[in-house]
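call fold(seq) -> tokens
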Amino acid sequence: PARGDALAAAKVNYIAGTPILFDIDLRDAYGNVASIDTETDLLVKYKRQSSGEVVTGTIAQRFVGQKAGAGYTATVPIARIGTYGVTAQLGAVSICLPLNATANYTSEQARVCISDADVVAAQADAATSLLQGSGTEGATAGDRISLRVVPLDAFGNVITEEQSRYVARYTVNITSTAPASDNVTAGQVVLADSVLRYVLLDDSHDITYELPAAGAYTVAVTQAAPGAPRLVGGAAINMTVSPAAAAVARTLINVTSPVKLA
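ret:
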């Protein structure tokens, strides 16, 4: 092809999982959209600067002939957050280079026509987010029990501080399923819609509480926002509270007299 131009918008943040789209106009010497093998002739690569991971775009032809506009489009879905340098290559020739790169030909200087791409996390996803703490296991009556949510997007990226602090919201409901106490009934909600607090140190959300009555419980942590309410981890958790050690102050010993024989 006699001419190749890659067209892209100014540098912006892209959301993980959202395809990055840009146009590539390849023409022959007569102004027709050039004929190429989209699988091998034209390669668009995004290289993650922190790890060297490479994501290759999908090339599609939009039209043929001498119509106005770009004849090809590149689609690159990127799931992992980070900064990516972008290279567009036609055969052995670099059409576009990432910042601070050197062209591999001199007849026409390759340009930095596609800015580095900054990919940021998508919104919190309840099914992917992590639920941690002693409240996910067994506990002893009267212990301080903890629950902690680490908000992740659908691709496993930790969401931004702004999203975690101002958008994401989590609540917990705990229901008795098999009580071992006369003071608690099966189906009784012993902790209702309690909000987990935001933790600035690591952008997580947590809560601590006590369950004084031994028995079996269901723990349901819900992502109340963003979006419709959904269970963190995709399901509620079953846990058992065991009796604590004997407390002398609450111990009673009843001595019954033996029955005398006639």
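The longest helix spans residues 161-166.
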